[in-house]
Amino acid sequence: MQTRPLPYLLILCVGVLAGFLYGYDLGITSAAILYTPSTWHSGMLQTGLLASSVFAGATLATTWTGKLSNHFGRRFTLRIGAAIAVAGLLLIVFTHSLPTTIVGRLIEGMGIGMGTILAPVYLTECIPSHWRGKAILGFQIGITCAIVIAHGLAAYRGHAWQWHGLMASILVPSFALLIGTCFIPPSPHWLEQKKQHPSQSHTRFEKHEWRAMVFVVLLASCQQLTGVNAILQFGPHILLDTGLHNQASSITVFGSVGLINCLMTWAAIPLVDRVGRRRLLLLGAIGMGIACLFLALCWQSPHLLQAKWVLLGLGVFIACFAIGPGAVMWTVMPELLPQRARSTGLSMAILFSSLAAFLGSLSFMPLAHHIGYTPCFLFLSCMCWLTYYLAKSRLPETSGQSLQDIEKTLKKHYANTPS
Q1: Can you tell me the distance from the alpha carbon of 344 to that of 58, in angstroms, rounded to the nearest whole number?
Q2: Which of 236, 272, 305, 398 has the fewest CB atoms nearer than 10 Å to its CB?
Q3: Other C-beta atoms within 10 Å of 166: how many?
Q4: pLDDT score of 197
Q5: CA–CA separation, 365 vs 229, rounded Å?
Q6: Direct distance between the N- and C-terminal alpha carbons of the chain, in angstroms, rounded to an integer
Q7: How many angstroms separate the CA atoms of 344 and 340, rounded?
Q8: If we measure between CA atoms, which residue out of 116, 86, 81 comes closest to residue 104?
Q9: d(CA 115, CA 249)
Q10: From CA 385, how far away is CA 285, in angstroms rounded?
């Protein structure tokens, strides 16, 4: 089944919007936590909860998103997710209580999590194979462009808008996504699956399908344990700890890292199909591991503990992430999962990766202030090398193949791979 040329553009726009919402929340939160109301008396633990509760919500969303999308379709479930995000944001904007705000962040995270799960699946199932890698990369471009825009807005208006004004601005991409889902077609692969299995309520997965799901879960979790979300959320805080003296300066300086993230993601567009997913992921993981070692060294040397050197380390880390795991992961995860296991497997992957992101965001700043930044960055470096090992040993190349061909290849691959 094929859709007409015009819906491809609408499909891509909605996929980019889902990524934009996730990235904008990530970027605006990293600045907004510097402007929380003084009546909250928020310490490092409360700051960690404000930042990480959205990932806790995303973790909860994974428990029902796969089943809902299999039953009602990707399009309808994506619309429900956008509506949930709007509801959570309205609660955040109109409350002045810290506990209620955390509940609002949890609800918002549920909606964002549903979009994060379904947008790559929907793009994978709707876009032709020769455009699929670039189209799913559009989801990641939406994330990175949104982070840059969020940092620019926060640097310009953060002091005036404070916490509530900055968080209210997330309503714009949330409503845009909600409206956009009203104009896209249903997934043709989902329609075909419903025709073939109209009354199937429970799926018994085969051995190769389970292996594919386990591998995708491990790969996604390791990527989150590299600490990329913690760095994107707490980058301004990290720079403040190097000696920068005000919030606006730290947000503005860290904005350059967000710009690097965006530019390197754009640079990955021609490479994701030409160079290949596997090679980009390997090169990116190596660069991230080296950058984390450099950052660990910065906090051990008085000569390197300056904002410019820490900013260099953070910039290299994010650049390598953007052109490696950031550009590749959302593409390969749906590709590696067979049709019957795609929605369920991606839900499982995002369940564990969201849990890893939640724990990382919750614990990073308290641990950094308790045991120091050096042990934290050394741990992140170990996770980068573990990601490299998993990709090197188990990840096949999927560039330029149809989903049906990939599934046949993976069935043989996992059948011949020892447990």
Answers
A1: 15
A2: 305
A3: 22
A4: 59
A5: 12
A6: 36
A7: 8
A8: 86
A9: 32
A10: 7
Show the tokens assigned to 42. Answer: 């928020």
Q: Answer for the pair 26, 144: CB distance below 8 angstroms, yes or no.
A: no
Protein fold of 8-188+206-415: Growth Hormone; Chain: A; (1.20.1250)
| Per-residue pLDDT, 379 | 96
What does the buried/exposed string (b/e) look like for 115-128 if buried means 16 or more CB atoms within 10 Å of the residue's CB?
A: bbbbbbbbbbbbbe
Give the C-alpha separation, 177 to 174, whole Å. Answer: 5
* 223 contacts 326 by C-beta, under 8 angstroms: no
Rounded distance between C-alpha atoms, residue 105 and residue 107, angstroms: 5
The pLDDT score that the predictor gives to residue 89 is: 97
| Ranges of each domain in the chain | 8-188+206-415
pLDDT mean for each 10 residues of the chain (419 residues): 61 94 92 84 78 90 85 91 97 93 95 91 82 82 92 86 94 96 86 65 74 90 90 86 76 85 88 87 96 93 80 94 89 83 81 87 88 94 95 84 77 65
Phi, psi of 13 (to 5 degrees): -60, -40
**HEC readout, the chain:** CCCCHHHHHHHHHHHHHHHHHHHHHHHHHHHHHHHCCHHHCCCHHHHHHHHHHHHHHHHHHHHHHHHHHHHHCHHHHHHHHHHHHHHHHHHHHHCCCHHHHHHHHHHHHHHHHHHHHHHHHHHHHHCCHHHHHHHHHHHHHHHHHHHHHHHHHHHHHHHHHHHHHHHHCCHHHHHHHHHHCCCCCCCHHHHHHHHHCCCCCCCCCCHHHHHHHHHHHHHHHHHHHCCHHHHHHHHHHHHHCCCCCCHHHHHHHHHHHHHHHHHHHHHCCCHHHHCCHHHHHHHHHHHHHHHHHHHHHHCCCCCCCCHHHHHHHHHHHHHHHHHCHHHHHHHHHHHHCCHHHHHHHHHHHHHHHHHHHHHHHHHHHHHHHHHCHHHHHHHHHHHHHHHHHHHHHHCCCCCCCCHHHHHHHHHHHHHCCCC
Instruction: Pull the structure tokens for residue 102.
Output: 């955390």
**Token pair listed for 116:** 């994060």
Q: d(Cα 118, Cα 18) in Å, to the nearest integer?
A: 9
